[in-house]
Specification:
Elements: H1 3-28, H2 30-34, H3 45-76, H4 78-113, H5 122-139, H6 143-157, H7 163-184, H8 192-214, H9 222-247
Length: 248
């Protein structure tokens, strides 16, 4: 297994891990998100905490993608590599803020359960959920920017079929427009525009994760060929020096 294949396998598995984390989080945190009176109600703190753990798995996966693929993207363009890693780190940091809000909601619910007036805790709980929801809008959709970096590098270097990064490059501006629309209040979550904006990204990241896991990078791409040639020269150098020393 070449170094390129190992890197591709690690990157692909980490991309797939982000799907497991984000989907698991969406399933388990539902009670805290959908119930406006969660803080004053019976609650489901353990379930929400499990959802927070899944979200941290997502954070681990996406930051891991940035770290693992950095070395490959750097061979294409150093600026793209730095941009990709930076946006991944920013994405993970913002999502982590949302995780902290979820955990704070469970703590607040436990305090409200023993309070004389649990309803008085509702505004604080709703504020935390609002922060968490905005963290998802800003953090998760930072994927548009890291797709511009990674997609450009993969497309240039022909490391994967060009249709895969092309999907991310086409979808990125649409997703960015949707985020701006949410911020200024002209669109929102669970709208038709939201589905249109997210679908290309869902397909791009899933296709990339599966391709890297089961196929790997194109070993005949220019940078892969150049790296093998350099490795061959490095392997041959000691033998050449030994032969020269013997002849002397």
């Amino acid at each position: 297994m070449t170094s390129y294949r190992k890197t591709a396998l690690a990157g692909g598995l980490l991309y797939l891990l982000t799907f497991i984390g984000s989907i698991g989080a969406a399933i388990f945190v539902g009670p805290a998100i959908s119930d406006p009176g969660y803080i004053a109600g019976p609650g489901a703190d353990q379930q929400v905490a499990v959802g927070a753990i899944f979200e941290l798995v997502n954070v681990f996966g996406l930051i891991g993608c940035g770290i693992v693929l950095f070395s490959v993207v750097k061979k294409v363009h150093e600026g793209l590599a730095v941009g990709y890693l930076s946006t991944r780190l920013f994405e993970g940091a913002i999502i982590t803020v949302g995780v902290l809000c979820l955990l704070a909601v469970t703590s607040l619910h436990q305090q409200a359960a023993t309070a004389a007036d649990p309803v008085s805790f509702l505004p604080a709980g709703r504020a935390l959920i609002d922060v968490r929801n905005w963290a998802l809008v800003i953090g998760v959709n930072m994927a548009a920017f890291n797709a511009l970096m990674l997609g450009t590098a993969l497309y240039r270097a022909r490391l994967v079929p060009r249709a895969i990064p092309a999907l991310g490059l086409v979808g990125a501006p649409i997703l960015i427009i949707w985020v701006i629309g949410v911020i200024i209040g002209v669109t929102g979550v669970d709208t038709p525009f939201h589905a249109i904006a997210v679908l290309p990204f869902f397909v791009w990241e899933l296709a990339l994760g599966l391709w890297l896991t089961f196929k790997g990078f194109n070993e005949n791409s220019p940078i892969a060929v150049a790296e093998r040639a350099q490795a061959d020269r490095s392997d041959q150098a000691p033998a050449v020096l030994t032969a020269k020393a013997g002849a002397a």
